[in-house]
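Q: Start with the shorter request: fold the first protein.
A: Done. Sequence, then structure:
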Amino acid sequence: MKPMKLPPTVLPLLVAILTCFCGRITFATEALTVASDFEGASVKVIEISEAARSVSFTPGGDAARGWPCWWYFQIKGLTPGETITLRLRGSDSTAPLPAKPAPKPLASSWAMPKQATFSTDGRTWRHSENGTKQDEWMIYTVKPDAASVFVAWGPPYTPATAAKFVSEMSAKSAHAKREDLCRSREGRAVPMLHVMEGDLPKEKRFGVWVQARQHAWESGSSWVAQGFGEWLLSDDADAAWLRQHAEIFLIPIMDIDNTATGNGGKDARPQDHNRDWSAEPHWNEVIAAQRSVGGLIKEGRMDVFLDLHNPAPGDPTFFYILDNDLLKEPMVKLRDRFIELAYGRISKIKPLIPMSNQPKTTGASYHPLWRQISGNWVSMNGNPHTVSLCLETIWNHTNSTTEGYRAVGANLAAAVREYLAERPAR
């Protein structure tokens, strides 16, 4: 049977009809699912709407293990290129104490960055467009070109990330050694980078201690620590000078257990890591850090102690310091000189990271346990020339990204070199 031959005028009409008909076909999409069975994940799903292609959620985590503001999870079942809506509500979880009034839930602003962070591969992190506040909800949209996407409060930095970074730096440079500060109470290794170059004896070297993430939700501080380490082991001549004249200890994550389990860490029971610097610390990380820092103090070479954090949502304060009247000279003069040098360098990357050059004080009016804050403990127990500071890098900003945080760390490391170069050799 011969095929029917259509008149030339019919073919365009059929094409138009088929195009119109196919344009109305709705293809089935996969069901959205949420995964949180991986390191650092935290979420409490309220609702998944297939019709709206949205996920409504609050931060997960155990309130007894710190402020419930951290969220990080994976959404699967996407059609690459489709827009997914994230509907975030603040957590109502609290951790009551016996014979105490019921605590209020944490203010939702701590959990609601202006932009969500997302990644399709778990390595490269980007910001969403600005979220929109609708009553108690913050609404974000993401449009990943993949069948799944990771979404988070900020760029995650897990124990595995820390271990990988420290191992890579150790393999890259003969002057760097991967060590473990200790093992946590839950048995996790706490990676530490130990850096020295050349034959200068330890007793003639400056002592530099840099630690991050005493509060597990403050992921940006770990990226600042990584930026510090990357610059330190770079080919920059100033970095080489610092390696040759100092002994540097760098810990990207202190509160390793809460970071691994997706808990907030801040005000965790029985003690906040950064309120645990007492005569009898609870946390293994603090015990080990106190022991090592104390050793540098006994040797008379605890020169620079830096504790890295992220601040409140709208706080541009860069440094937190102990009140001047609680310190003796030359400590105040040296500390102020370091702040001047650090701010001078890091302010050059504005508007990358907006900040204030006016430090805030952390004495008796700041917190009942002010003496047990790490930077204060080091100031009060350190050498006369010790510079001990808490550095807060703003997180709720367009450029609070892995690149922005690492730039802060690199400039901070360069400031340490510049400051120590002014100090007399031992």
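Q: Next, the second protein, separately.
A: Sequence, then structure:
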Amino acid sequence: MRIGIVCPYTWNVPGGVQAHIRDLAEALIAVGHHVSVITPADDDAALPPYAVSAGRAIPVPYNGSVARLSFGFLSAGRVRRWIREGDFDVLHIHEPAAPSLGLLACWVADGPLVATFHASYEKSRAVSVSAPILQSALEKITGRIAVSEAARTTLVEHLGGDAVLIPNGIATARYEHGEPLPGWAGRTDAEGPDAPQALGFLGRLDEPRKGLPVLLKAFETLGRARPGLRLLVAGPGDEEEILAKVSPELRDRVVMLGLVSEEDKVRAYHSVDVFVAPNLGGESFGIVLTEAMSAGAPILASDIEAFRRVLDDGRAGALFPTGDPAALAERAALLLDDAKCRADLSEQARTAVRVYDWSTVARDVLRVYETVVVGVPGAAVTVS
């Protein structure tokens, strides 16, 4: 099958949707399908061989963060040419409601179209205002996928229609093994306030909903009571601005890695005793959790609906009240003092994450492709 996949967000900046598209494309290629991905990206960006650039992205406030999207005559022309030359059996558009390539593809393409909805939000003024325009594009879609119940609810309430639920996938084998980063002991059975232990965080530093300030406030309490504790922070953003929020006597125990490679990200998960996801909301799934689960990291996460589902109601990872640094500190202290509990959470996480492996998820996505292709006999994706 010839499959075209449309990525709405720039390939230059890591994100959950981009990771989902990358892994889906590679899983489909591995089983013999021809896949091409079009994505916002600088023309000189290093892209995988199956991806092409639709032009540079610009930052746009979207869904509680700043997304880097492509929209305009240049992007529209490249999308149109890519579809015409691709001779696709099916076109798979991600986040078609975002003002980016997916919406452009809906406007210019006809034939078997599948869309995946990732975002979760209660209200969106932008979506409400643009609903009539969106409907003219979305009505072309013949197969709809939502990555979570939260994303499905957003679709039903804001855009209408329904979707089959297929979760985000994870290449579990990629994260299972990794050496700790230099200078880090990795997970041990150490316990107590004097033990050389580490908490970990991964996410964009400049995005408030990722909740890093909550973790930093908790570390102010934990760090003073635990002289052996360090905090490992990975992700793009202004590191000096983050460190300025930490008391001077604790700053040398907060280690900033910046934007890390895929290899170092895996090693980071294997470098910490507890991985913390203090997100405040706006998450429809939580790909960072499935990565940490695949690595066997004991997890402490905020009790938002998406995280609760992925962590099996707290059996595959501990939960704390969202946005509460005191509760985070208290729950983290309990985990740091209980090696057996951490080991049990690690084992439960490795088991629970198997349902999200791409070997399962890609097969379910292919079934949706086959359904829409069969529903339009002899049809292929064409340009309007």
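Q: Describe the second briefly.
A: The chain has two domains: 2-169+357-383, 172-356. The CA atoms of residues 4 and 91 lie 5 Å apart.
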